Here is the input.
Amino acid sequence: WVRWVRWVVVTALLCLGSEGFEGPEGSQWSGWSGFVSVSAPRSRLVRHASVGEAVDDALRSGSFPPPDWLRLSTVAVSEDAAQRVGRAVLAISEGLRLEQKKVERLRRDDSMAAQALALWVPPRSMLLVSSMIGEALGDEPMILVENPDLDGEAEFFLGELSGPHEELRSVATEMLKKRFVAVVDLDDDGRAAIHTTASGKAMVESLISTTSISASWSAVGGNSEYLSWIAGEVSDD
Here is the structure.
């Protein structure tokens, strides 16, 4: 019955569009099952009748994505899941651009082939798009929104590491073993994405300071189940 309720909500979102869930400026946007929950900044509240209209306006401006848009990211651990996400995004708007990249997803106890997926969305459409992606992924989805407006200090971070592939793999193994990070998504181009907490970020920075690896950081929000899992995987020491 839970999946039936989700289907009803997603259908309503598609019928209503972003305007149907406007809410007051600065109000909390949260999905039906703990999906992305961050404050919608007043400066980002642009009134569009639909996601498609927002995409069209962005394309006409000649600058894509617009500086006020938000980046959503997730990981699909099967080709079927990646295709479902692609179809869900296409159903929202043909103008949304889904980025796909093959990665090796490393955790403390296992590793697997996966696809990292990301796209830029209008701020007012964040609920709609994240809900559709979550439904496409099924049970226990992972959805992150980068650099949201947060109340107080950021608790969770996405780190983008760059360096020689073998050195990245070695450092990734050490970070996971010492519980500095919850997960590492490693690609073949000398890049790795890591998910961690504020305390984990400090430990990672100390670890890579003696290596040739560089890092850039984005504060993230996300679905509550996944953020709770990150907090449980990363050491507080």
Remarks:
- The CA atoms of residues 140 and 225 lie 7 Å apart.
- The first helix runs from residue 2 to 16.
